[in-house]
Specification:
Structural class: alpha+beta
Order of helices and strands: HEEHEH
Radius of gyration: 15 Å
Strand order of the largest sheet: 1-2-3
Number of helices: 3
């Protein structure tokens, strides 16, 4: 049986939490920031959890996490 490979793109974007969920950073904060309000940019900071419907897909991409 071949080895299971980790999807490296997903490994750089998602981290597994102790309770078994996955955390992710929010999008839309890389460029074109001048037209976005301060409130919008402030709410895009930090991390949030991956939605439950996407967790099974992430488990396939990150088999060793």
């Amino acid at each position: 049986m071949p080895k299971l490979k980790t999807n490296r793109a997903a490994a750089k974007r998602f981290k597994k939490t102790a309770s078994g969920g996955y955390k992710r950073s929010r999008s839309h904060l890389r460029h074109i920031l001048t037209k976005k309000s301060s409130k919008r940019k402030r709410h895009l900071r930090g991390t949030t959890m991956v939605h439950d419907t996407d967790v099974n897909r992430l488990r396939q991409l990150l088999p060793h996490s």
